[in-house]
Write a structure and sequence with these properties.
By secondary structure, this protein is of the alpha/beta class. It has two domains: 129 residues, Conserved hypothetical protein from pyrococcus furiosus pfu- 392566-001, ParB domain; 75 residues, no CATH class. Helix content is 52%, strand content 14%. It is built from twelve helices and nine strands. The strands form three sheets. Strands 5-9-7-8-6 form a five-stranded mixed beta sheet. Strands 1-4 form a two-stranded antiparallel ribbon. α5 crosses α6, α10 crosses α12 and α11 packs across α12.
């Protein structure tokens, strides 16, 4: 069964109070309740533990934007971490950390929380959900990690995230049905979670070739979805190959059907 832990009134996530639904934590082994203590410290960059970055997608273009802001205004908000094995395991603020490294800063202001690993992962989800800065794929990664590492089922995941069970199920399904090659492209930023939602309609063995076409043509979600639907409707192997080599013909055909051919 799950347990809740209290939070002091001044807990702030990116200047917004953390919703109570996000701070319900399932502690599988310890099963105990305790308050989350908070303090802000100046932490040397060398003391940060970046191990939770494996459940985040950190793209260079986003780091550049944060770096430009920090160059002009300095650090506007503290990063968030927890004490872990003598270091500070970063929970929120990876882009600020990488920007600080590029700017040759020595320290960052850090809000230090006393939380467990499971609670830290839930907070990764809640901090970024507040500003809607997290990809669907990142949400799926965190949910899968909580499921596998902390033995949470979908009902428990729904409870600790404050979302519905169907919200959890859709994200877990996304990450479970995707081909590993496509998953790698998503992690590198070549594809998005929206692309993944289109690609999981395909058999795993065919997702890679369609994904390569999407990347080559830099297709947005709408056209990627059209391409997937057209591929599924086509049964001839030669026609499928032609469709992937020249997807623009399919988009022209679809546009004509939607708008009416101009030379009728």
């Amino acid at each position: 069964m799950g347990v809740t832990f209290g939070v002091t009134p001044d807990v702030i996530v990116n200047r917004n109070p953390i919703a109570w639904s996000f701070i319900v934590a399932y502690i599988y082994r310890h099963k105990k309740t305790r308050a989350m203590s908070i303090e802000i410290k100046e932490i040397d960059l060398s003391r940060f533990d970046l191990s939770l970055s494996q459940i985040r997608m950190i793209h260079n273009d986003r780091i550049v934007k944060i770096q430009e802001s920090m160059w002009l205004h300095g650090q506007l908000q503290p990063v968030v971490a927890r004490v872990h094995n003598g270091a500070y395991q970063l929970i929120d603020g990876f882009k600020r950390y990488y920007s600080a490294c590029d700017l040759m800063m020595e320290t960052l202001q850090c809000r230090v929380l006393e939380v467990s690993l499971a609670q830290a992962k839930i907070l990764v989800l809640s901090y970024n959900h507040t500003l809607q800065t997290m990809e669907t794929w990142e949400e799926a990664l965190i949910l899968q990690d909580l499921q596998k590492t902390h033995q949470m089922n979908q009902t428990q995941l729904a409870k600790v995230t404050g979302h519905s069970r169907s919200w959890v199920s859709r994200r877990l399904s996304l990450i479970e049905k995707i081909d590993p090659e496509v998953a790698s492209e998503i992690m590198m930023g070549a594809l998005t979670g929206s692309h993944a939602r289109a690609l999981i309609k395909l058999p795993r063995g065919n997702q890679g070739e369609v994904a390569r076409t999407i990347i080559h043509w830099n297709l947005p979600f709408r056209q990627s979805n059209q391409l997937v639907e057209a591929w599924l409707k086509e049964t001839d192997a030669a026609r499928r190959k032609e469709l992937l080599e020249h997807p623009e013909y399919q988009f022209f055909h679809d546009d004509c059907q939607e708008d009416g051919y101009p030379y009728d």
